[in-house]
Specification:
twelve-stranded antiparallel beta sheet, Thiol Ester Dehydrase, Chain A, 266 residues, 16 strands
Amino acid sequence: MHINEILQSVQRATDSAGGFTAEVSDDWAQGRTLFGGIQAALAVQAMRCLAPDAPPLWSLHTTFVAPLPPGRIRLQTQVLRQGRAAVQMEARLMDGEQVAAVCVAVFGGLRESAVRVEPVPPAALPAREPGPALPFIPGVVPNFTQHYGYRWWEGGIPFSGAKTPGNRVLLRQRDEGALDEAQIVALADAIPPAALSMVSAPTPGSTLSWALEFVRHPAAVPSEGWWRVDVDLVAARDGYSNQDTHLFGPDGELVALARQVVAVFG
């Protein structure tokens, strides 16, 4: 399924207030669960359906509780608080009666402020051809990666035994069309955890929590453009890793920040 088909499949359920359903095909799977980015994007889409007049999204905190298989997805949403400028909402993705993921989002209206600090531009990438692409090999790499193009500039692809604790990757959405809020949410989570680049053999990993913050909201971005993703592994020990991510748009400007906790099983 095209990512827009998935987002457009979000429909109100008739059996509960704040309930929605969606359809996701298995080409968006990651092992035995759905790709976390598409789960978060569905949560944002359902929140938008619940409160279509909500202002721009500024933060999204997601906890992945249990595997969520492809197919018909059930979401339960609610407005936690609506103030004059900010709206806080929650969305739960359900597998039957089991909560699979919990997303809490903050939407906020623009306002005048005396404080303005522009983000520091990223260091220029080395003047050379980008490194290896991540090939889509069914049964070897996650199914969802067929919807994205990857080119490694620094660091290493997963399971390559890289020595540097971080990656610089060029990334784009292969599904045609423009990227707006929900598609950018999915894109921001499409990079494999940096810790998996440092192991030299296939090793399972699972994101436990993921926090995304928007810095700005660009107009809809054509999918042909390449985004830059800088991932820095802050710490890794005792089977867990912590990483920071900076997502830069095709124009080179910072769009979003993320912090992620990953369990590494090996």
